[in-house]
């Protein structure tokens, strides 16, 4: 298994965000994380990527325990993510944003680049070439000279994906990537995610757009109040009484 979570729990000031969450993610697959608002989905992403540690439980990546590993070391192992609200360097160019995503694999420091040391210049050329490849993949070829802040929301999401891919991840976490996109843009984004998976990147995605997530994912995990209440194929999850109740509630007459 690429990613294993065992008994993951997280509390904030006495409030439980995750409670004993366990599941496995196989390499080369696409898994969706769904659940009502406040279910613990983004907290799950933050514990996996190392934003903060869990209070209990274990996280393993490619068989190696990473529960206490720093976020930058997890990134170097091959874990990358996007955010609900794109976090871009808006005063830098589109190309520069993607090049910064290569930091986990590059050894050239800014000082070395500034001094124009030969090895640093070579690495900078390589980083630039790879960044252009990822911009082409997400449909932003020819836009690298523009400032990131000039892009509309939809293209900012594509840019953030390109930057995440620049670190050459084995696992890519997407946090509500279709928020703010129209139906056409959502379908285009689905096609992009499938093409990324076909390049050998495993995908873990949080999403509220049910048609998008059910048509994209091999497996679905459902959270509610920090607990895993269901997991399985999209068909199985859509028929689950526990999932229906979590989203729609239950009539008191049925209690």
Provide structural commentary.
- By secondary structure, the protein is of the alpha/beta class.
- It has two domains: 1-78 and 170-255, 3-Layer(aba) Sandwich (Rossmann fold); 82-168, Rossmann fold (3-Layer(aba) Sandwich), CATH 3.40.50.300.
- 38% of the residues lie in helices and 23% in strands.
- It contains ten helices and ten strands.
- It has helices spanning 41-49, 71-77, 94-100, 110-114, 118-137, 153-165, 183-198, 210-216, 234-239, 241-248; strands at residues 3-12, 15-25, 30-34, 56-61, 64-65, 79-81, 171-175, 202-206, 219-224, 227-232.
- The strands form two sheets. It has a six-stranded mixed beta sheet, with helices on both faces.
- α3 packs across α5 (118-137), α3 (94-100) runs parallel beside α6 (153-165) and α5 packs across α6.
- Mean pLDDT is 90; it is low at 107-112 and 251-255.
Poorly predicted regions? 107-112, 251-255
Q: CA-to-CA gap between the ends?
A: 39 Å
Assembly state of the chains shown: single chain
C-alpha geometry:
globular
């Amino acid at each position: 298994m690429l990613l294993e979570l065992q008994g993951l729990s997280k509390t904030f000031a006495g409030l439980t965000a995750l409670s004993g969450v366990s599941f496995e993610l196989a390499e080369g697959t696409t898994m969706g994380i769904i659940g009502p608002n406040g279910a613990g989905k983004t907290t799950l992403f933050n514990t996996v990527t190392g934003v903060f540690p869990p209070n209990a439980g274990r996280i393993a990546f490619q068989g190696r325990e990473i529960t206490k590993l720093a976020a930058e070391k997890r990134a170097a192992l091959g874990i990358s993510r996007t955010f609900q609200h794109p976090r871009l360097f808006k005063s830098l160019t589109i190309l520069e944003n993607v090049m910064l995503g290569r930091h986990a694999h590059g050894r050239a420091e800014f000082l070395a680049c500034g001094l124009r040391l030969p090895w640093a210049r070579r690495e900078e050329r390589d980083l630039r070439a790879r960044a252009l490849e990822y911009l082409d993949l997400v449909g932003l070829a020819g836009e690298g000279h523009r400032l990131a802040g000039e892009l509309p929301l939809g293209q900012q999401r594509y840019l953030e994906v390109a930057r995440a891919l620049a670190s050459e991840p084995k696992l890519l976490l997407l946090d509500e990537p279709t928020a703010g996109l129209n139906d056409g843009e959502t379908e285009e984004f689905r096609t992009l995610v499938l093409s990324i998976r076909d390049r050998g990147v495993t995908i873990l995605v949080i999403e509220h757009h049910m048609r998008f997530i059910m048509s994209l994912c091999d497996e679905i995990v459902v959270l509610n109040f920090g607990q895993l209440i269901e997991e399985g194929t999209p068909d199985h999850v859509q028929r689950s009484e526990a999932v229906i109740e979590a989203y729609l509630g239950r009539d008191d007459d049925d209690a």
